[in-house]
Input
Amino acid sequence: MATGFTDFSGYTADALPSDWTIRFNTSSGDVLTKADAGATGGKVLRILTSGGTTGYFGASWDAIDAHSDRDDIEVYCKYRFNQTGRNQECLVFGRGSGTALANSNLYAAGQARSGGGSRAITERDSGSRSTKTSSSYLPDDNVWQHVVIRINATSISAKFWAGVETEPETWTLTATDSSTSAAGFAGIVSGAYVSGQIDNVDVDVIGYGTGGDSAPRTAASSTPVSFSGTVPTQNLTEDSAMSALDLSSYFSGTETPFSYAVQTGTLPAGLSLNSSTGVISGTPTAAGTAAIVVRATDDGSDTADTNSFDIVVAAADVTAPTLSSPSGTQTGSTTADLSVSTNEGNGTLYWVVTTSATSPSVAQVQAGQDHTGAAAADDGSQAVSGTGAQSANATGLTADTAYYVHFQQEDAATNDSTVSTSSSFTTAAVAVKGIQLSLKQADGNTAAASLTGLYYHAWDALNPGGASDANGSTETTDGSGVLEININSFSAAIDGEVFLFVYDLDGTEDKDSVCFAGRVPVVDIS
Output
């Protein structure tokens, strides 16, 4: 879908327009742009037919050829017969092919002054003329005539009106032709009916629409380029690519395309302005500040400037961060709090927790490895947003184990700190759950000290039925008669009370030496 319009004001007078092509030159003639103060653009396209024989002469507008969807085309033309009493014809055509009428093909809507005058939709096929439909009408001399032809698939439609008349709402003539070609050139052609007679047709304006668009009847309103908004200061870093600055978004106007140039100042070394897109991009190579004004120029030579804006290039950061006060503090048997301080509030902090005091390399810390290249006990990373103490956490450690934490920071300029290693810290031991019971001899007062080979069965006091949750046959009492049993290995987790049955086998009867039967609380015995 595309549209185009011209009033010929942009073409050189007394010459064939630069983007038009002569067509159907079966008579002597010419196609020239001529000055005309009464024309819309101050110029007309004049088609002259003359010579010893009757014939046709015309031209097509090359701009239409660029559109692949011109098989659906509408062409509007405003023209006049500028001589009095001549037998002339003027045709507005589309889907043209060939050069001279002898080998041409086209569909046209036109008006003729011969034979009493007519309006018609016609086909030209290899020199033969076929009228698809027509009506009687005698166009006046030196009065602007308006013609629109629309060709879409097999449908051909035309409108006609004269002078200051209003454009009809419906088509004046319609026809169909199953042999219409898929696409072709479009333009205007004039015919001379009297041998040796000079006949002129002046074209004031012509417009086209393709792919379903209507042909414009007038030139689109024009708005010169203008600037709005404020281009902010651009803060860059030496040797770091800048984010592209698109200045085209600050300009508007209908006279496109725009071109762009630096009007004031000089871009920092390494940066450039694309004159077609208005984008400043690149990598600055030196520190400094430049005050810049960029000018946009539209297709009509109007200009607009940006505000003056600074491009500030800071010196590249080549200093690595410094880490200090690394530490690890156990917060349980498998966790720890980690801490380190930095003098740079940017970049990324990495750490690994290992069982060795030997510091891994920078690359190993960033990869989550210990100094041997094996996976660390724990590792992590986080963004750094401020200087001073940085906190992190370690998980998944082993109880009652000595560890070291190794920190490393890479700043935003990719400078790497050295590895900073903490003193050792040891995770907490796992608490041992168990039961403690003081056994007495038969008198009920004397401690049953140093008993050996004691048997026991234990159940969860909340669920004492069935097989015991734990049993043993080698328990002993200490010198004070205290029996201590570790229940961490019980088949069921018990946290509260157990029902305990303790006895001592004397080798003759299993149950005549029961030492204890009852409920006993679970306690920490480590």
